[in-house]
Amino acid sequence: MRTYDLSPLYRSTVGYDHFADLLDRALTKDTTQNTYPPFNIVKSSDEEYRISIAAAGFSTDELDIEVKENSLVVSARKKADEDGAVYLHKGIAQRSFDKKFQLADHVKVTGASYVDGMLNIDLKREIPEAYKPRKISIANGSAPNGKAKDQVTIDA
Question: Is the dihedral of CA 82, 100, 56, 116 positive or negative?
Fold first, then answer.
């Protein structure tokens, strides 16, 4: 097993503690992760994503989607079978599950649908105006009252 020292990352960055912690958890996590139920993560465009989870056999009442801080938690709780059927073979897994996804900053859940046994969760990255690139004017210091004769703009 390899170990990684992330202390240089902590020493040379400010405000990226959550990223370093996420990386540390990913590197030290047990490799025997639960793969039930199967799922896909699709990048639809530069700003849109979709998580598709195979949840056949569950009703919409048994599924729950919750967003808390930067985590998306999808869970399902199967109600007890009340039909009294005796199964000779039960190969369709309908056990309860919890799936947790870490969302990047500014990624929001925009909707969810359940069609043909597939739970689809749509996500979109919505960057606030304050974080988008903007032009900064540079004033020429020789002008009176702080107003510049010549201004130069640069990308921030």
Answer: positive
Place of tokens 């969760």: 121
Residue 30 has pLDDT above 60, yes or no: no
Q: Are strands 97-102 and 48-54 parallel, antiparallel or unpaired?
A: unpaired
Q: Give backbone dihedrals phi and psi of 3, rounded to 5 degrees, phi first.
A: -120, 145
**Beta bridge partner(s), residue 40:** 52
β-bridge mates for residue 138, sequence order? 152
Amino acid identity for residue 121 in this structure: I
CA distances from 26 to 30, 33, 100, 122 (A): 9, 11, 13, 24
CA–CA separation, 40 and 51 (whole Å) = 6
What is this structure's pTM?
Answer: 0.67
Vertex 68 angle, CA 64 and 72, to 5°: 55
Find the mean pLDDT for residues 10-14: 69
pLDDT band of residue 1 (cuts 50, 70, 90) is low
Q: Measured in whole angstroms, how far is the alpha carbon of residue 85 from the centre of its chain? A: 40
Q: Where in 21-155 does DSSP place strands (E)?
A: 39-43, 48-54, 63-68, 71-76, 97-102, 107-115, 118-125, 135-138, 152-155
